[in-house]
Write a structure and sequence with these properties.
The longest helix is centred in the middle third of the chain and has 48 residues. Helices cover 12% and strands 32% of the residues.
Length: 560
């Protein structure tokens, strides 16, 4: 049946101010216009829930039968609901045991549903629209909802849920936690007095509560406060503690125990320590059910209630042999640790000496990274070997090794133009072995170019020159100069970490004689600064034949 007011909002922003989305923020089509109002009160004393809340599941709010969705409970009422927080944690589930449900009709177009969980102190209430206007029906806007609804968007307006303030839930008495209805009873020397719950209510007005207006008395329905006064007066309540009434003020009262006086409350604390123990005498009074009570065969029931039982398991004190053995054991441990300490001192001193030696070697190798070896072989050949250590923390790129050959000829001999025996080999970091290489340039200036030199690695190369028809009047020396086209810091090569962002190198000044040789050679003068240079001593050529052969071996002859 159509209703003139249809789905008109009832709670927030009523027409003409809209409010059709309330109690939701942006409801999806599967729940739009279904609810007109919503309320949830819940406890969260530990602040574990996150906002905003949402309607995660509904049952019984539609007539279109669908399959129950997975991951949600089985309904227990004609209408059920599940509310979740912003993290998907369930805040309220109406299908939980102990939740009661009721509904009531409001007017001709609204149905109020209410769920109450008294154990968890949660109340959930919503108002369901049941009718449409005739205009909505004619326009085809009326909707038939599913009996199981998992809203695509069911976020609730923040005004629809109310977190309960922290309140008294339990009272601890001794080791027990009491909840629900708690009765206060008088004890020995403690009296209770409660004010009449209606004695002051007529004198309280709205003005007394801070509400402006005429002094109207507070009416029923307001919160009332009952005051209970506890008085600790001797003899009040149930009277004095039993067994004290019959003792005269001048009678035999216990005032000291072994000279110890009680505290301000009259208590004497008895404490046993070491091998002594104290306990209350207890005996088994019933097997089924198993119960105990104060008792001892040598005491009466009244005496057992006020008795302390002293026990001990003390044995003889330690004898002298025990102390001697303890001392011997401690001395043995001291001697062992003394040896460890002496070894640690030796290791410390050796480490310090090694560090000093390593630092000196480090400075030596950084100052002279070039090692040269020139060997005069029989049959007029010279074997030359170079080792270059990249002591920096940068990778050197396109490294040039320039070799300048110089002859010192004694009369009547003359200078001899050597030729390469083509036995050049280069050993680089990262390669499995020697790599053959052809010398670049012509006598007296040659070069070998390697693509890179890794940080903290060595590059080694060897070659041979033959001086045909030599004599022992000819001496030879070779100069080696090292320069490169560029370098890269550890930022470009993270496999070679460096504490220094940049690397610096020395610059070598080239003498005029060497400059002349370079300018006259086919290699010309280098375009980059020479960083390291070193020269061998003069070595005399050896003209002794191998296997009586008078000249350089044919296998080593110049290919031309």
């Amino acid at each position: 049946m159509a209703d003139p007011r249809g789905r008109q909002p009832i709670g927030i922003n009523q027409p003409p101010g809209s409010g059709t989305n309330y109690p939701f923020k942006r409801p999806s089509s599967d729940i739009q216009y279904l609810l007109g109002d919503f309320y949830l009160s819940f406890p969260d004393d530990m602040c574990q829930l996150s906002y905003p809340f949402k309607v995660a599941w509904l049952y019984g709010f539609g007539t279109n039968a669908v399959s129950p969705p997975t991951g949600f409970p089985t309904p227990t009422h004609t209408n059920d609901i599940v509310i979740q927080d912003g993290s998907g944690v369930t805040v309220f589930d109406s299908t939980t045991a102990g939740v009661s449900y009721s509904s009531s009709v409001w007017g001709t177009r609204l149905l109020i549903h209410e769920w109450v969980d008294e154990d968890s102190h949660i109340i959930c209430r919503c108002t369901e629209h049941t009718e449409w206007t005739q205009a909505d029906i004619d326009a085809g806007l009326d909707t038939t909802y599913d009996d199981y609804i998992v809203p695509t968007e069911g976020e609730l307006d923040s005004r629809t849920y109310n977190k309960l303030p922290q309140r008294l839930n339990t009272v601890k008495v001794g080791l027990s936690d009491l909840s629900g209805e708690i009765t206060l009873e008088e004890g020995y020397n403690i009296g209770l007095a409660s004010a009449d719950s209606t004695s002051d209510i007529a004198q309280v007005t709205l003005a007394d509560l801070g509400v402006e207006g005429s002094p109207v008395s507070v009416v029923a329905g307001t919160r009332k406060t009952n005051y209970v006064t506890l008085s600790a007066v001797a003899g009040s309540g149930l009277g004095a503690f039993p067994s004290c009434d019959d003792v005269a003020p001048t009678g035999l009262l216990l005032r000291r125990l072994n000279g110890a006086v009680p505290d301000e409350k009259g208590n004497v604390i008895f404490h046993a320590e070491g091998c002594l123990r104290s306990k209350r005498p207890v005996t088994l009074t019933s097997v089924t059910p198993r119960t105990f009570s104060y008792g001892d065969p040598s005491l009466t029931a009244a005496e057992a209630k006020a008795a302390l039982k002293l026990l001990n398991d003390c044995g003889p004190c330690c004898d002298c042999d025990n102390f001697v053995r303890t001392y011997v054991g401690l001395r043995r441990q001291w001697i062992l640790y003394e040896g460890i300490a002496q070894n640690a001192e030796v290791a410390r001193d050796r480490l310090s000496s090694n560090i000093t030696r390593w630092e000196a070697q480090k400075l030596c190798r950084e100052a002279d990274p070039l090692r040269l070896s020139l060997l005069s072989e029989k049959q007029c050949s010279m074997a030359y070997s170079v080792v270059f250590g990249n002591t920096s923390k940068c990778c050197l790129r396109a490294v040039h090794f320039r070799f300048t050959v110089t002859q010192d000829v004694l009369a009547p001999a003359t200078a001899i133009t050597p030729y390469d025996l083509q036995k050049t080999k280069v050993y680089m970091d990262g390669q499995s072995g020697a790599v053959p290489y052809v010398l670049i340039g012509n006598y007296p200036v040659y070069e070998i170019i390697v693509p890179y030199c890794n940080p903290q690695s060595n590059t080694r190369m060897t070659f041979r020159l033959c001086f045909p028809g030599c004599s022992n009047l000819t001496r030879v020396k070779i100069r080696t100069d090292v320069y490169w086209e560029g370098s890269s810091s550890n930022e470009q090569y993270p496999n070679y970490p460096s504490l220094d962002p940049d690397c610096t190198y020395p610059t070598v000044t080239i003498d005029s004689a060497t400059q002349t040789l370079w300018l006259d050679s086919s290699l010309t003068y280098p375009a980059y600064s020479v960083r390291y240079a070193k020269e061998t001593k003069l070595m005399t050529l050896n003209d002794h034949p191998i296997y009586c052969a008078p000249v350089c071996p044919p296998a080593f002859a110049d290919p031309e």
